[in-house]
Design goal:
By secondary structure, the chain is mainly beta. It has a single domain, classed as Autotransporter beta-domain (Lipocalin, Beta Barrel), CATH 2.40.128. The protein has a 12-stranded antiparallel beta barrel with strand order 1-2-3-6-7-8-9-10-11-12-13-14.
């Protein structure tokens, strides 16, 4: 979801979905298909309610490169009124510049295409570009991951000042960041925690911080993860749950 919902997907599934800077881990060459289901409750200065979403994705990755595309369909409740519709389309690419499985660093670039309804809070209402850098370091069974990026709206839109849209609020121009750790309990079961956020550059923007706990498990070519997220600052949401499943071909 834009600020790094999933720190690391097991295997080489699509790892960036609805505007989030993620780190993928790839086989030599693999294609993946995934689906993410989410439910959240929120309250901001103008609206209160809840929303649910389904986010299918497709991706390809190898040891150095990765690319993916994702879209979303939402049910959004705004002050008692229900809205159904598509979210924005997101395309991303990733390159690991240096390192190996023990330590690596690279860059991610993502672009969102405004197909969601920006007036009703389902989409940005404009193109958003989101480049970032990432680093990952593995110590025994623990992997530490961090990202730092810059996101900017292109052209006009529906959130020239404050965060928007409701389903994935971010500022029109901001610095994004994240840091987390993943513990490999067994080869098939992982657990992790992370914090992520956004620092605004535009007038009327809001600092945003999200905390999350995650569990993931994989069998063969299928991986599944569950994450519980809490909005700590900036009112992105009160609490959100995410269930993701990916199949590697």
């Amino acid at each position: 979801m834009r600020l790094w919902i999933i720190v690391v997907m097991l295997a080489s599934a699509p790892a960036l979905a609805q505007h989030h800077h993620d780190v993928e881990e790839g086989d030599r060459a693999a294609f993946g298909a995934g689906v993410m289901m989410l439910a959240a409750t929120y309250q901001n200065m103008l609206y209160a309610g809840n929303y649910e979403g389904v986010v299918p994705s497709l991706g390809w990755s190898n040891e150095r490169f990765g690319a993916g595309i994702s879209a979303a369909f939402y049910r959004l409740e705004e002050n008692g009124a229900a809205v159904y519709g598509l979210g924005d389309l997101v395309v991303h690419g990733q390159v690991t510049i240096v390192g190996d499985h023990a330590a690596r660093a690279g860059v991610i670039a993502a672009v969102s295409v405004p197909i969601g309804d920006g007036i009703r809070g389902l989409g940005m209402g404009h193109v958003m570009v989101m480049p970032a850098a990432f680093g990952a370091w593995t110590i025994d069974r623990v992997e530490l991951v961090a990202t730092a990026g810059y996101s900017r709206a292109l052209g006009g839109g529906d959130h020239d000042h404050g965060p928007w849209p409701i389903v994935e609020p971010m500022n029109a121009e901001e610095l994004t960041w994240s840091a987390g750790a993943i513990l490999a309990i067994t080869d098939e079961v992982h657990a992790g925690a992370r914090v992520s956020g956004g620092v605004p550059f535009n007038e009327g923007g809001e600092n945003r911080v999200i905390g999350a706990l995650r569990g993931a498990w994989g069998t063969g070519r299928v991986s599944t993860g569950v994450e519980i997220q809490a909005g700590i600052a900036g009112d992105p949401f009160i609490v959100r749950g995410v269930l993701s499943t990916a199949l590697i071909f």
